[in-house]
Amino acid sequence: MFAVHAGPSHASGYLVRAAVTAPSPCNTQPWTFVAEDGDRGIEVHIDGTRRLPVADPAGRESVISCGAALLNVRLAMLHLGFTPVVEYFPSPADPAFLARVAWGAHQRPSPEVERLFGALRRRHTVRGPFLAEQLPPSLADDLRDHAHRAGATLDFVTGRAGRRDLAELVRLAEDAHRSRPDYAAEQRRWTWWPDEPRYDGIPLDIDATHPDLTTFPGRDYVGLTRMFPAPPQRRPSRTGPVAILGTDRDDPAAWLRAGAALQRILLEAADRGVMAAFLTQPLEVPSLRVRIRQTLSGGAFPQMMFRLGHPSCVRPLPRRPVAEVLRTPDADLT
Ligand SMILES: Cc1cc2nc3c(=O)[nH]c(=O)nc-3n(C[C@H](O)[C@H](O)[C@H](O)COP(=O)(O)O)c2cc1C
Fold it and tell me: From residue 152, how far is each of 21, 113, 177 by CA, in Å?
């Protein structure tokens, strides 16, 4: 899948190519990696210049994205036959320095590692209705187990009332976002016409379907709802099961765990041909996030929400080149 060459910098490049396949809001890719001297390991830092100050003032979503990228680094090391040795927040004076991952002892990769690693490039975010196909019966339990092993919880919102309440909260958040000029301006900065040479953000032809076509409205990246306020026809049956990923705390360490849990879940699902469509809008509105915690996530701090299903098509989005995100030891990180 990824080419391996001998030599320290190549090993770091290999880890980083796996890391950057992680999801991030608006494809901001808010990370920087540092290859440690003598190829002892790799550092994962937040790139604060890529945070979304309006949608994500606390940087929660940036840390979740870096947590997913960090999980990918660990998977790539395991795939190469080494145990990752992770030190979280190694420099208390520098909160942007999230983790250091050193090469540990030799260890043959497990079948699970190989399955998840193999799904890295097959995982993509989906938008719009899914195919009518049922999900594999054991999938929900397996995904809960992944969340648990990463130190998080996964709750499926079952029952008509719960889904209706959540759909209402997503609708309220999406309406609020659509009416806020600062929000629209931020989103515009991270969207581009398909002929622009960009390696981050979201191309404007991403939304092949109307964002209000499913019961849970999608993010209106394109401003389609201003041109066509009502969708041609709702397709509630194609919405898929909805899940909330939660943590027992709400601080950077918990956000990092949520990112690892998210990525494990997404890769396990992708390995079985199932993808996620995200519904994170109400988590960006503090009052709505509190309501979700009180009524739908069993008291856990909700960190991510998504629907799951078989996609009719996927659209791989670009990533910044390794040379742009991987720094050498003496490069200036500020
Ligand atoms: C914290 C977070 C929030 C996200 N929120 C949304 C969202 O509300 N709507 C959406 O369509 N995608 C959302 N995404 C997915 C990103 O748009 C997607 O990861 C990015 O565009 C890269 O595409 P890929 O996941 O297909 O590689 C979110 C991702 C993360 C990590």
Answer: 22, 19, 28
* Distance from residue 113's CA to the centre of ligand 1 (Å): 24
Ligand 1 atom 16 nearest Cα: 25
Pairing between β-strand 202-203 and β-strand 97-106 as defined by DSSP bridges: unpaired
Q: Are 65 and 25 in contact (CB under 8 A)?
A: yes
Domain boundaries defined on the chain: 8-123, 139-309
pLDDT band with cut points at 50, 70 and 90 for residue 4: very low
Share of the chain above pLDDT 90, in %: 81
User: Can you name the CATH fold of 8-123?
Assistant: NADH Oxidase (3.40.109)
- C-alpha closest to that of 279 among 311, 242, 233: 242
Give distance in angstroms: CA of 108 to centre of ligand 1: 33
CA of 27 relative to ligand 1 center, distance in Å: 6
- What pLDDT, in 10s, does the model give residues 143-181? 999 999 999 999 999 999 999 999 999 999 999 999 999
- Ligand 1 site residues (CB inside 6 A) read 23-27, 61, 64-65, 124-125, 127, 202, 218-219, 278, 280-281, 317
Closest CA to 209 of 200, 221, 192: 221
Convert the pLDDT of each residue in 182-235 to its tens digit.
Answer: 999 999 999 998 888 899 999 988 866 788 888 899 998 878 888 888 766 766
On the question of a common fold for 8-123 and 139-309, the answer reads yes
pTM of the entire predicted model = 0.95
Please name the fold of domain 139-309: NADH Oxidase (3.40.109)
